[in-house]
What does this fold into?
Amino acid sequence: MAIAKAPRYSSTWLELREAADAQARAAGLAQQVQRHLTGPLVVHDLGCGTGSMARWLSPRLPDPQHWVLHDRDADLLEIAADSIGSPAETRLGDLTAITAADLAGASLVTCSALLDILTYDEIDRLARACTSTGSPALFTLTVIGRVDLAPWEPLDNVLCDAFNDHLRGGSRATGRRPLGPAAADAAAEAFRRYGATVQVRETPWRLGADRAGQAGCAGDAELIAEWLRGFVSAAAAQLPDSADLGTDAYLERRLAQALAGDLRVTVEHVDLLALPAPRGSHGVSFGTPRFDDPSISFGGAQLMPKDAPPMMAGMAIPFRSDKAAREPKKKPMCASGSRNSSTTIRHRP
Ligand SMILES: C[S@@+](CC[C@H](N)C(=O)[O-])C[C@H]1O[C@@H](n2cnc3c(N)ncnc32)[C@H](O)[C@@H]1O
It folds into this structure.
């Protein structure tokens, strides 16, 4: 596979976010997938970075395990292979053209914080590759375009919409259009199209708040600050009038709040588990979405709180799409941009 020229992810940033990622991921989905696995495991981690997903998932899976770590960044691959604590091999290459042959023999395919940087076609190819190898897929921490800062400021919404434009490729003249906030929805739909059963869980980062979601907590200040710098700078790059809007002053104000432990940030993600149709069943199914209500997202996948108990399995919990979710209650919530406000993909863009 050729290696496309693309932005690199700093190992410092990936390490800084690792604890928040670990806390956010849906352990219940990992438990479920574990029940579908037998024998020595071969786990493919796509876009492994420094190996954060393997460090989180490996203790939740039975031994023996062999990890196949994929990334286009050789430096990150080396860090990952040296640090995950399980036997591993590395595959340096571009995942956008992945095929079933690349995943042959996989017991499980995983990724974390990857889907939202892929395009519709790349996600479709990936879902097809996973389902045709018969491997379950556990795809974690896909952003869905919603961010909530407390205390709220009007500029939050402007920046969030602009940031979502950035995720979708924004003004970059590459011609490549990542799905950004719509990626999880597209993935759920693609897996279902290829006959898999899909479950989705909300897995937000809740930064600057303790587990009970009450008091501010300075412990996340460094992560919030780094996230804020990236968020504001990427958003401002999409806004021709960012100087007039006061984005520099906004960033300074927000950084000061973060350092003082006075800022809470919720960044919404979802985790997706796709279990392929049992071997011998009629493979590809073009099932209709389970819900007719267009406000329900994720192509009819089941969306549940991440710690939903097992008895909830099979109960569909409607998930309101961005428009409904954005209806202000106490204060507005950021959501994906008005130019593409729905996270439900029903037609190829
Ligand atoms: C946001 S980071 C996530 C890293 C890691 N999964 C984690 O959760 O910490 C995305 C990773 O995917 C890799 N990546 C992005 N696009 C890729 C592509 N087209 N082919 C291979 N690797 C890619 C990047 O190099 C980076 O390591």
About this structure: The CA atoms of residues 33 and 136 lie 7 Å apart.
